[in-house]
């Protein structure tokens, strides 16, 4: 090769190169400590929640008049994937889900468009609609959660202390936001007796208007004098519940104190909002989110320091508890991965020292930290944190980056043995191998292109795998051609004689086997192809998986009561669950969220929105083994002791959140028809013994009382439907009259009937409704009562009612296996459905298919880049076809390794298999280049193939063995294990085939004496 020889340049500028090496090491060390630390790579949750309320409307009215109008507008959203909404009486919640291909900027711009477009059509919503409101922070992760319990303090006193702590923690660096959990606002109740008011002739409406008028804040003017400006303030504002109780008003010609005819007391919102419990005790939670790009370890240390300061001043009786600490998890994960990284380095160094010797091994030992020292600053510039994916990528890259250094060192040793000077030997590798190594490096990187450019959430999650491997491999090439030759000149010495001991015997054995294989060329090719076909046919035997479960010790316990259940029923269920967990030897601690799901304390968590019937507990076991024991116990106990609840126990998942493992969506225009089809789908799913806990996201109707007003009779009495609804709401639920401004809080003043008159349905008939003129009339005089059934909530997808059949799977089974088994029965059912009705697979299988499709869509680009790089290097179609023919043979080892180990073929494993194509192609292109180099010396195809394969045997096998052994530390891990096993098996088999099958194919094509050469383009020297 002509042109600039970088190795020669480096040797002529030694001082400068040494200086650059020193700077690189220092910069790498500094960057390592500055890199952000996190548990998972950040990826955008491409979901916005749009909510609107229409108080008093039925579920059907809300769906048709609010949900439908909003969804019609939202369907025009750019990059929209699908809309999903649930509607309940008076409330609509719509999830706007964007396509996985939407970039971060597109997501941000789209949310702005959603706000603007919905704002423009807000005037078309019915009068009385509150909102819509928007939440595009749905993906915020609150990695650190504290809980506070109290003994001897009121909830208000506890909240005061927690609010003060929140204010202090907001000043901690890297804190972006803090949310309170389990807080219920204070309310001042003014509770009347209907009979007493009627007896005294008190006009309730006039009384409430008087309370509002006294408490209102209005300017009273300003007096301007010659020297100052004096503001005038009018007293009367309520400061406490006692001020309200002391209000006097006139009725029936006399003055009456409010406390004489009503109970005025301070309490909390009724019914309460979501509650938070820690280890069985009511608590208030403090959830802390980190800013983007922050260091969770530094944040954890700073939060811990600040908490030590503030809790020292807490009164005795208020106890803080650390509920979730992502910093500890990340610290443990990084420590574990750093241990794996050091183990991988040690393994590779041992291989290098044993196979190459002490001095050559020392060069490899120095090349590794040099490469990593340059990689870390580039990661910092590219804003790639130290997290699950990037750390695993470093280990995978480590096994690959020594390849070029080994090739350079091996070539230098060979030239020194031939008698070349150190300078000539050190620069020979660049002349003979540099561009083949660069082409191989680019081909290897191209194998990771589907990882980097897959347009899906899973692709975004694993992007840093591509980025880190690409950075490391490119850096390793520069290290191999600039730094390694300089180290070789300093460290290597010419061997006294060529070694002919053990390595020579290995070479002779290999050469003998190779020559036999080449003589029986058609048999060798046939056996290789037969093994490849067998591996492809065996692929369905490998279980399919999306992402595995996490190895964290947490368990999520979901309890869903019937959907008309009150939050009090959920609280009772939560207390029963507390009793089950208390004292269990496998439980370290737990927290329960009553009326909502857990806050997103872990990025891949599938967050559940507030619902009164839902409770989710996060149980932290003492270790992973304890988690598995606890999992089995809880499933059994929940099935036996909570028969009326839909329960699920699951470890935390990895990758994008998907919810229940098995899901089938039944959709169609008529709700009743959808319900009937869903029941059939549920029966089909339940027929598979591997499926359990079959349930529906909505199904059962609940009771409603409909009051039919005789409008003519009501008008004769001077009443309207609005006045009647207002009276009923005040009596039953309570109406907010005014607010008390209490320190930093606003406390609603709610007027309602006393308890015994409020909770009884029978009292409705005798309810005295005030009439104009001070008289009253019973409600039954002008209204009749009907008991009806309505669905408490209705889910829709893309404006079509959709009922999801959900199920869990028994341990040891993968969702894809069950879906495949159920597929014939589901397809048979779908053929019987009327037009406009459909059953679609959802959940893990759907997400896996979408993610795999996003990867497959990028494969053509990967192949194009590979072919282009190979063509530039080889400049021959036959040689290109030879390299390409070797790459797929890695599937033989992949399938064998996965079947023998019992590992599944998951999303990350598929990425590894695609990357394996690049690794195999790299070895193939270097071997082909070596054969061509041998032929330029006048050798025939047979002799050139044998000699080139023999000379490349050691570096190719060393690289393969180093890569395989270097992945041993991550092979047992949950996340990386299947990918590591696939690459180990595939690379080992493909390396052997590269050294045997490729030379055989070459000789078969070109002939033993080169006769076929004339029929193809010549390859330039």
Automatic annotation (TrEMBL):
InterPro entries: AcrB_DN_DC_subdom, Acrflvin-R. It comes from Bradyrhizobium iriomotense. This is ACR family transporter. Keywords: Membrane, Transmembrane, Transmembrane helix. Pfam families: ACR_tran (PF00873). The keyword GTP-binding does not apply. The chain crosses the membrane at residues 16-35, 337-356, 362-382, 434-455, 461-493, 520-542, 853-873, 880-900, 906-929, 956-976, 982-1005. Signal peptide: none annotated. Coiled coil: none annotated.
């Amino acid at each position: 090769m002509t042109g600039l020889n970088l190795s020669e340049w480096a040797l002529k500028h030694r001082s400068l190169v040494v200086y650059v090496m020193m700077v690189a090491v220092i910069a790498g060390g500094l960057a390592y400590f500055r890199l952000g630390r996190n548990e998972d790579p950040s990826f955008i949750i491409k979901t916005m929640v749009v909510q609107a309320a229409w108080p008093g409307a039925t579920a059907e009215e809300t769906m048709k008049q609010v949900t439908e109008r909003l969804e019609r507008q939202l369907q025009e959203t750019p990059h929209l994937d699908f809309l999903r909404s649930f509607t309940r009486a008076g409330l609509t919640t719509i999830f706007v889900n964007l396509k996985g291909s939407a970039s971060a900027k597109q997501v941000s711009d789209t949310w702005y468009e959603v706000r603007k477009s919905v704002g423009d059509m807000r005037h078309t919503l019915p009068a009385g609609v509150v909102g819509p409101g928007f939440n595009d922070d749905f993906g915020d992760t609150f990695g650190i959660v504290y809980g506070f319990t109290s003994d001897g303090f009121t909830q208000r006193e506890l909240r005061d202390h927690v609010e003060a702590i929140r204010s202090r923690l907001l000043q901690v660096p890297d804190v972006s936001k803090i949310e309170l959990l389990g807080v219920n606002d204070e309310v001042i109740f003014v509770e009347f007796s209907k009979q007493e008011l009627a007896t005294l002739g008190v006009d309730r409406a006039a009384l409430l208007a008087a309370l509002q008028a006294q408490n209102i804040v209005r300017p009273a003017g300003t007096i301007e004098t010659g020297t100052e400006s004096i503001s005038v303030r009018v007293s009367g504002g309520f400061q406490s519940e006692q001020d309200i109780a002391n209000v006097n008003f006139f009725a029936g010609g006399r003055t009456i104190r409010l406390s004489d005819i009503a109970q005025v007391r301070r309490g909390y919102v009724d019914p309460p909002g979501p509650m938070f419990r820690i280890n069985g005790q009511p608590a208030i939670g403090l959830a802390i989110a980190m800013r983007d790009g922050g260091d969770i370890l530094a944040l954890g240390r700073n939060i811990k320091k600040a908490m030590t300061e503030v809790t020292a001043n807490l009164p005795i009786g208020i106890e803080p508890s650390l509920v979730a600490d992502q910093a500890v998890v990340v610290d443990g994960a990084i420590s574990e991965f750093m241990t794996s990284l050091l183990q991988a380095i040690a393994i590779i160094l041992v291989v290098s020292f044993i196979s190459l010797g002490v001095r050559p091994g020392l060069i490899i030992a120095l090349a590794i930290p040099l490469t990593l020292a340059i990689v870390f600053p580039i990661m910092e510039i590219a804003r790639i944190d130290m997290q699950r994916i990037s750390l695993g990528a470093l280990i995978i890259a480590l096994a690959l980056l020594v390849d070029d250094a080994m090739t350079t060192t091996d070539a230098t040793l060979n030239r020194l043995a031939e008698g070349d000077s150190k300078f000539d030997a050190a620069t020979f590798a660049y002349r003979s191998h540099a561009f083949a190594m660069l082409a191989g490096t680019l081909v290897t990187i191209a194998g990771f292109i589907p990882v980097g450019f897959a347009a899906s959430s899973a692709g975004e999650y694993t992007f840093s795998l591509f980025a880190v491997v690409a950075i490391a491999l490119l850096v390793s090439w520069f290290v191999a051609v600039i730094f390694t030759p300089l180290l070789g000149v300093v460290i290597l010495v010419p061997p006294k004689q060529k070694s002919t001991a053990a390595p020579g015997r290995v070479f002779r054995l290999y050469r003998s086997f190779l020559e036999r294989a080449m003589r029986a060329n058609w048999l060798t090719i046939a056996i290789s192809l037969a093994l490849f076909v067998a591996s492809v046919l065996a692929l369905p035997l490998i279980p399919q998986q999306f992402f595995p479960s996490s190895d964290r010790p947490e368990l999520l316990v979901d309890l869903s009561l019937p959907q008309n259940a009150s939050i009090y029923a959920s609280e009772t269920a939560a207390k029963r669950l507390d009793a089950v967990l208390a004292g269990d030897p496998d439980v370290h601690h737990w927290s329960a969220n009553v009326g909502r799901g857990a806050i997103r304390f872990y990025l891949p968590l599938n967050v559940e929105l507030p619902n009164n019937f839902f409770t989710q507990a996060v149980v932290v076991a003492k270790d992973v083994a304890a988690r598995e024991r606890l999992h089995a116990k809880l499933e059994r106990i929940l099935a036996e002791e909570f028969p009326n609840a839909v329960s699920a126990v699951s470890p935390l998942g990895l990758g994008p959140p998907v919810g229940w493992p098995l899901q089938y969506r039944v959709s169609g225009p008529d709700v009743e028809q959808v319900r009937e089809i869903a029941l059939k789908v549920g029966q089909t799913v339940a027929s598979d013994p591997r499926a359990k806990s079959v349930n529906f996201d909505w199904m059962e109707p609940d009771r409603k009382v409909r009051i039919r007003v005789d409008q003519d009779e009501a008008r004769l009495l001077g009443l309207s439907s609005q006045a009647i609804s207002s009276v009923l709401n005040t009596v039953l639920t309570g109406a907010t009259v005014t607010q008390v401004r209490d320190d930093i809080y606003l406390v609603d003043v709610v007027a309602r009937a006393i308890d015994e008159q409020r909770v009884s349905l029978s009292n409705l008939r005798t309810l005295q409704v005030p009439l104009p003129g001070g008289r009253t009339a019973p409600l039954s005089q002008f209204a009749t009562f009907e008991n009806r059934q309505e669905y408490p909530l209705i889910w829709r997808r893309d404006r079509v009612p959709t009922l999801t059949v959900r199920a869990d799977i028994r341990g040891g089974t993968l969702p894809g296996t069950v879906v495949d088994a159920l597929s014939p029965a589901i397809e048979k059912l779908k053929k019987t459905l009327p037009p406009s009705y459909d059953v679609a697979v959802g959940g893990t299988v759907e997400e896996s298919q979408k993610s795999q499709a996003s990867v497959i869509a990028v494969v053509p680009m990967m192949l194009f880049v590979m072919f282009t790089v190979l063509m530039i290097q080889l400049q021959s179609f036959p040689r290109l076809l030879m390299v390409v023919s070797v790459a797929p043979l890695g599937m033989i080892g992949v399938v064998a390794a996965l079947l023998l180990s019992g590992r599944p073929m998951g999303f990350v494993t598929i990425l590894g298999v695609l990357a394996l194509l690049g690794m195999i192609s790299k070895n193939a292109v270097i071997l082909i280049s070596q054969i061509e180099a041998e032929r330029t010396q006048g050798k025939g195809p047979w002799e050139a193939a044998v000699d080139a394969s023999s000379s490349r045997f050691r570096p190719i096998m060393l690289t393969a063995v180093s890569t395989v052994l270097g992945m041993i530390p991550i092979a047992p891990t949950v996340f990386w294990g299947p990918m590591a096993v696939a690459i180990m098996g595939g690379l080992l088999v493909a390396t052997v085939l590269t050294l045997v099958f490729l030379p055989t194919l070459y000789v078969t094509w070109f002939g033993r004496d080169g006769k076929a050469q004339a029929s193809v383009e010549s390859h330039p020297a």
